[in-house]
Design brief:
By secondary structure, the chain is mainly α. Helix content is 67%, strand content 5%. The protein folds into two domains: 2-42 and 220-422, no CATH class; 51-201, 3-Layer(aba) Sandwich (abc type-2 transporter like fold). Helix 2 packs parallel to helix 11 (266-298), helix 5 packs across helix 6 and helix 9 packs parallel to helix 12 (310-334).
Amino acid sequence: MYKLKATIVKDLRILVRDTVGLTLMFVMPIILVVVVTMIQNSTYELINKNRLSLLLCNRDTGEASRQLVQSIDRIGMFRVVPVAPGETAANIIARMHKKDAYLSIIIPADFSLRITEKAKISSGQAMKAFGLDADSVHTTAGEALPVTLYYHPVLQEPLRKSVDGALRSALQIVETRQMLKTLYFSINGTALPDTLEKALLHSNTVITEIPVSRDGNLSIPNASQHNAPAWTIFAMFFIVMSLGGSIVREKSSGSFVRLKTLPTNYALSLLSKQLTYLAVTLLQAAVIFALGVWLFPAIGLPALNMPADIGALLLVTLVCGWCAVTYAICVGVFAGTQEQANGFGAVSIVILSAIGGLMVPAVGMPDSFHVIMKLSPMHWGLEAYYDLFLEGGTLRDVWSNLIPLLVITVILQGVIVAGLKRKKLI
């Protein structure tokens, strides 16, 4: 026990002197988790609070265009900025380049005419289908509705798809309203009553959103619940920059050879490093989770809601930390120089986090990546954390993710021993 204690003290002194490594292990993950959570939280709130600025140029004077403008405004997704009807498309695009807005719509002068003619065609077809007489309608305007949407390239595809869907819904309401009015007038010879129009167009069906949780909790997970666990795992594995380099320095300085001449086993030194840096990973997790609970609300971010099963959280953190420490030692054993350890370690951690679901959600990955994703230990650690933070799981719910993580860790431990024997260090 005395030898182990002395070795741990030695490793702690080396760690304290490594100011760059400490910065990478603590300061960088803290900055990452705060910045990424702020960005993602702003994205979540974009539609509900911030709203996208939309330049709207209505060149039509008919009723249909006014209804379209009202429908777009009621969506609640846009902050509509009216533009003069005579404004050219070039000027509108120039305003978008200046970031006055990321979206713009031009409603053509014949919009209401086209809507009316399309409604007549549709109502005529419907009356024929009902076996009623209908006057044939001849139109030269065509069926396409040339509403032009300009978008800034900075908008990513998922957001553009949401915008497109919202605008199509607004257009559909206008078209359906006009068709109902035309059809009703064709059948009854009178205008469609407002009460009937509202009943036909506005559905009263309520959609209740309920998050699926294991403990029956109905609270909706926020950006902090997604990001704090993910970047905690990233911080744990980034100890490779300090631990991997430390092992390389010991090899190059001859410390391994000197240890072989002492009345002790190098396994004791490995155990010391694992215990020391495992404590570091636990401290990293404690710091990031504490920031989520107390700092996030102070800077306007949603608070991190801790899982109910703290014992399961501690176990998941221990296993993730042990795997991270094992990976760092493995990199240090096989790296020839400190530059190799740092370079390969940093790049490999970024790659493992990318394929493991930390940077890109697993649900957004193609099917071909699902097998590759399971090779990353970060994937299993993240799934275990998500079971606790997002689904309200308990200890029995995380075993399916902890067992593969333990298997990967044991395999890496075997690789470490084989590497040390091959290099005749043990």
